[in-house]
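step: validate -> pass
step: tokenize input -> pass
step: predict -> running
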Amino acid sequence: MADHDVDLFVIGAGSGGVRAARIASSYGARVMVAEEFRVGGTCVIRGCVPKKLLVYASRFSHEFEDAAGFGWTIPTAPTFSWHTLIANKDREIDRLEAAYVSTLERYKVNLVRSRAVIEDAHTVRLSSGVKVRAETILIATGGWPHMGPKIPGVEHAISSNEAFHLTELPKRIVIQGGGYIAVEFACIFAGLGSKVTLVYRGENILRGFDDDIRAHLRHEMETRGITVTCGHTVDAIEKSGDAFVTLLSNGEKVVADKVMFAIGRRPNVMGLGCEGLNIKCHEHGGIEVDEYSRTSVPNVYAVGDVTNRVNLTPVAIREGHAFADNMYGGKDIKVDHINVPTAVFSEPELGVIGLTEAQARETLAVLDVYKTSFRPMKATLSGRNTRVFMKLLVDGTTDRVVGCHIAGPDAGEMIQLVGISVRMGATKADFDATMAVHPTMAEELVTMREKAMSYGRKAAE
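step: predict -> pass
step: emit ->
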């Protein structure tokens, strides 16, 4: 080890990198982390955390409206301050970043505020020109917004990164995209009072999700005043005074104060030195790794969104932790990327785990589908026009629950607990035998008895 300055050099101080660094250090490894921006990565600085704070803010407008049905009178119309929200959000992000830095210091991890480039399998060069020799290198640089093909005026568009730092709340905004980020920001801006137009090239939003949940959310978004235009793209953006005119592929023009592109994120591999080292990447851009997060180059590993496996913060954390356990703790852990629960913090919120109906029909000999849609109790007095949707997919041969899809308040909280059941292999009979908690929305998950439909042998019998 005399030839190495550190045992582990981590590039990127996001969720996966920080977890790997501190766990490796706890095993006695000498660890250095390089971060060129802010400690915390996408999730803490420009992703999950600030977004969820904006989600909370956007939902108060509905709460004020609903309060009247429960006897509350608000003397004057509520007013909203974007400046206050952003300032308070920034203070919280500063606090969290400081907590991350403190954690690294407590675990005696050497943090360097610098860009790092890999020169060979054991050498990393910092922006200062200093070279660090490491026994092992871990790439944890995450992802970066993709702005799509070069179109006229694309320089006028913002990404989700800039959305967190707008000086004013746009009165009108066009958002291109149909995934997590686009849908969530559409609901955020609409809840805060903006007129929102969501443009997506696909046939419906949230590609890869269950078709019923996609249709339900789109209907709910449109009910809340969001214009959802599918099957089209933004082909050009023209500046017109203080506003922007977006030209859609169907010839329609939409005027907005801001245009946001949220068409996906790409693994952040540019300029890392991967090409010179011949580190293999998938055709989707992610660094190719095996089940232990090893790249094609000995001593170089990668975790998190940069690998483009399952791009979620808890997955990056689990991958980083497993890497350190295996490398320095003598363990043999393979991260299971199957049955990962996830939430979309839209309005209404989504929580999903497991197979979609389309996937289940392709893979199962017999599929039983249970689903329900109902008006939540809160809406009976508030008068809000909204419905909850829940769906269970059951393997008709084994009775095992293989998918759960929820749209409604606190769906993210519900799916975390459902995730435990699904991972443990719970059957529909287990769900049925569980006492309901009444009155709750979640009780519908254990009281659905009638099949909506069946596919396969059983349906034909």
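step: describe -> The CA atoms of residues 144 and 415 lie 27 Å apart.
step: cleanup -> pass
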